[in-house]
Structure formats: C-alpha cells, structure tokens
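Onboarding guide, step 5: your first structure request.
Type a short instruction followed by the sequence, for example:

Predict the 3D structure of this protein.
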Amino acid sequence: MNTATTLRTVLGHYPHTAALHSGELIDPAVHLDFQNVGVVHKAFAPMVRDQAYDLCELAVVTALQAIAYDRPVVLLPAVIASRFQRGCLIGYGPNGVPAEPDLVGKRIGVRAYTQTTGMWVRAHLAEDFGLDITKVQWITHDPAHVEQYQNPRFVEQIPGTKGTLQMLRDGDVDAAILGNDLPTGEEYISVIKNAGERDLAWWHKHRFMPINHLVVASADACARQPDAIRHAFALLREADRRITSAVSEAGTSCWPTMFGFVSLAGALDFTIDACMAQGLLPRRLSLEEVFAPARKLLGSDAD
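The system replies with structure tokens like these:
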C-alpha cells in the first residue's frame, strides 16, 4: 500500500488555505504536516538559513534575497498573501502627523528594512511623491532574515525590545510602517492621504495587488521528494481555485493570490525593480533565474 510523503509545512490561515488546514482537501500522495510557529514571519529566518521546513510561506523580499544570496530554497509560482499597502504608513495624532512631501529628513520606524510591507510603502512614496528614500532615516529593530544581507547606510537598527508602535507613541519616530499589526485606533492616522483611492488606481494601472508572501520549498525536499512537492503545489492551487471561483462569480476583481509562471511574471518583475531601487538586492535577478528551479520541478503544469 502506498503511503503519503510527509512535508513539514508552514502556511498562514487564509480563506484559500482553510481547506488544507482542516483536512477537507487532501491528496493521498502527500501529507502536509502543519507546524505551529505562532506568527508566520517567525518561520522565515529558519527556512532560509536552515531549511527548517519542506514547504513554507515566505515574504517576497526574503525569497528574492534568498535566491540572490544562493540560499537553498526554491520559489514556487504561488502567491498566497497580498494586500494594498499605502495605509500601512501611519502617524500618531497627539505627536503630529507629517505630510507626504515633508518626509525627507524624518525618522520612520519599521520592523526591519527588508520587511515586505516597508518595501512596498517606500516604492509607493517614490512613485506617488518622488520621495528619495535615501534621505529618510529608517529606524528598525530586526535584522534581515537572510543573514548575508547588510542594511544600507541610511538605516539604523536600534537595540532593545521596544517595538515599532511604541516608538511611534513615544515620539522616537515621526511615522511608522506596520503590517498585520496595524492599529485601528482613531489616534493613528494614515500619512498618505486617500490611501484607498490611490491603491485602487494603482491596481487599475498595474493589474496586481502588491505581493506579500509566496510559497517556497526547501532545496533538499525538492531533491529528495520532488513528486511530493508537485502534489503539494497542486493542492495549493486547487484550494485557491475553489475560493477564487466563488469570488469571481461574486464580481470581486482584486484578489490576494496568483498562481503560475505566466501570471506572476509581470508582478514579480516589478517587485524585483522595486527591490533594486531600494538597495535590497545585490544584483538584478532575471525572471529566468528566479523561476528556473521551479520550472525544472513543475514543468508546464505550473504555467
């Protein structure tokens, strides 16, 4: 009797992964052994440094850096988390909120310079307002997940345990970038005015939602268990298809997932350019380089 290959797996809880977490959608050839890591970004450093998992959600900036620095991960053409980002740059009302044109010379807090939300906010500030990001002081407290990367000179990593939001409240920074931990109180005010309208206009122009997280496989798992990785990718795609079919019928056009080399090509090329503009990559990656290992593994089934 055939037994399923077990893959140590880290995936966040989303509508399009619910059927995988619950066991509603399965494949007899592969068993996704979900690892409890708490906040999903806690899995990123162990994945790119030690191949701690076989299949893992990973921030797009970390994934691209991992490829550039030859870390043993294979990027699969599977975006499972995206969001509009302009509203993630906030000020604290009691301290005063800087206007977009006045950010030069200001201190902006962000968990890590390499955090994907921060990358997108900086890209939007440059695109919308012509901001020179090198003339802002970026205040961080976490290093990059990929150890080989070093922050640029205009980034300061401060010691201690004070988080980004507390730094904003205490006036240590003039504004802050927060993602999943974005606060909702009315004292926290978006720095970018009309952020939602700007995000929607950006979507109509570029036709994709800014990528946050993709799925990667460890190079070891791809070498030892290629069939299992192929079956896992098919499961991911089917779980997403079931949800997106319903969303399409409801008339919703903006959706936070993308699957397939063709679908990802333009969005990923844009993301690589944004990373290059911010000093996040040591060299420009080509799509061929980024996709080659997964193309070899998945073939035309992932187009």
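Each response can be followed by summary notes, for example: DSSP finds ten helices and twelve strands in the chain.
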